[in-house]
Specification:
Layout lengths: L14 H7 L25 E2 L3 H5 L7 H30 L5 H24 L5 H10 L4 H25 L2 H7 L7 E6 L2 E6 L2 H24 L1 H7 L1 H23 L11 H11 L9 H19 L14 H8 L6 E2 L1
Antiparallel strand pairs: 1-4, 2-3
Helix pairs in contact: 3-4, 3-6, 4-10, 5-6, 5-8, 5-12, 6-11, 8-10, 8-12
């Protein structure tokens, strides 16, 4: 059984080439199929018989490829956390007008660059939302997703440690390493006061923003038909722009000091929380549970819409296939 090591967006060849390259070859953006291809042609059904272990990807745990790919996720997430948190601190410290707008633009740029850099190695996730959602849809196995998420969390910790090493203790204390916060304690006329937003409000913002991120941008990466037509650079540019826009919207719609905006990346919130601790752990569950719910809702959406508008081929690791095989209904099925 061939395994896919991420959201590899081939840009022009038909499926037989994809199977030979194991989904990891990046083709020229101007490559074209040898013959006209109908999107519905990819939906041709074929017999498939897999075990639960194969669908979950247990066999990948014994291969060096998945562990090498996880190094790309680790380093990519470390650089992402270091750069994003540095941008947060510098934009606020510079005392410019509308720092959240500048922050959103710079965040979009760095995300696009890192996605293009990490994509050839692991598929370019650098976000547990991407890895978990890709596992649910079936682009990657659940085993690979778990390895990626662990690597992303470790990378986030390394990125936060690197930031702590280069900033002063005053900045570290004042900005909490630019971690994800819902509230902060600030001086008031009658003593310290807590400013920010309610946990429920932050939770729903996390759910909505994470779902919009999946629906409005990653969908193009999941459906390799669209990826072929748009091209790798354009797809990742859209992903970065959508994330930057969501950061701007989430910080603007609340207009509350103390709230750092929607995380839309649990690992980025996890790294500073581990290194800095303290109030960064307050309501930290929101940054994990909210995106997880969004991933599940998005997966249900992919099962509801017409198949010809969903995917160009069936994915072996679809979580629905796991359930079918576990209950004895997946042997010899057609996809």
């Amino acid at each position: 059984m061939a395994t896919n090591n991420g959201l590899h967006l081939d840009s022009g060849h038909v499926d037989d080439v994809e199977s030979q390259s194991n989904g990891s070859k990046i083709l020229p953006l101007n490559a074209t199929p040898s013959k006209p291809q109908n999107w519905n042609d990819d939906l041709e059904k074929k017999p498939l018989s897999l075990t639960v272990g194969e669908i979950l990807g247990f066999n990948e745990l014994l291969t060096s490829e998945v562990w090498r790919a996880s190094v790309g996720e680790l380093l990519g997430t470390a650089v992402l956390v270091f750069m994003l948190d540095t941008i947060v601190i510098s934009t606020i410290e510079s005392d410019i007008k509308m720092p959240n707008l500048v922050l959103s633009i710079l965040a979009a740029v760095i995300i696009i660059i890192l996605l293009l850099a990490v994509h050839p190695i692991s598929g370019g996730h650098i976000n547990p939302i991407v890895s978990f959602s890709a596992a649910l849809v079936g682009l990657i196995s659940m085993s690979r997703a778990v390895i990626y998420i662990i690597a992303q969390c470790v990378g986030a910790i390394l990125g936060a440690l690197a930031l702590k090493a280069v900033v002063s203790s005053t900045i570290e204390s004042s900005f909490s390493l630019a971690g994800c916060t819902m509230t902060v304690i600030a001086p008031g006329p009658n003593g310290p006061v807590t400013i920010g937003i309610e946990t429920a409000q932050a939770f729903w913002l996390e759910v909505f923003c994470s779902f919009i991120f999946l629906f409005a941008s990653l969908w193009m990466a999941y459906d390799h038909r669209q990826a072929k037509q748009l091209g790798l650079v354009l797809v990742f540019t859209i992903v970065g722009l959508v994330l930057g826009l969501l950061v701007f919207v989430s910080t603007s719609v609340t207009a509350k000091k103390g709230y750092s905006g929607a995380g839309i990346n649990p690992a980025r919130c996890f790294g500073p929380a581990v290194v800095r601790g303290g109030h960064l752990w307050d309501g930290h569950w929101v940054y994990w549970v909210g995106p997880a719910i969004a991933c599940l809702v998005f997966y249900l959406y992919t099962k509801i819409i017409p198949e010809q508008h969903h995917r160009a081929k069936a994915y072996d690791h679809d979580i629905y296939n796991v359930v079918k095989v576990m209950f004895g209904h997946g042997r010899g099925r057609t996809l």
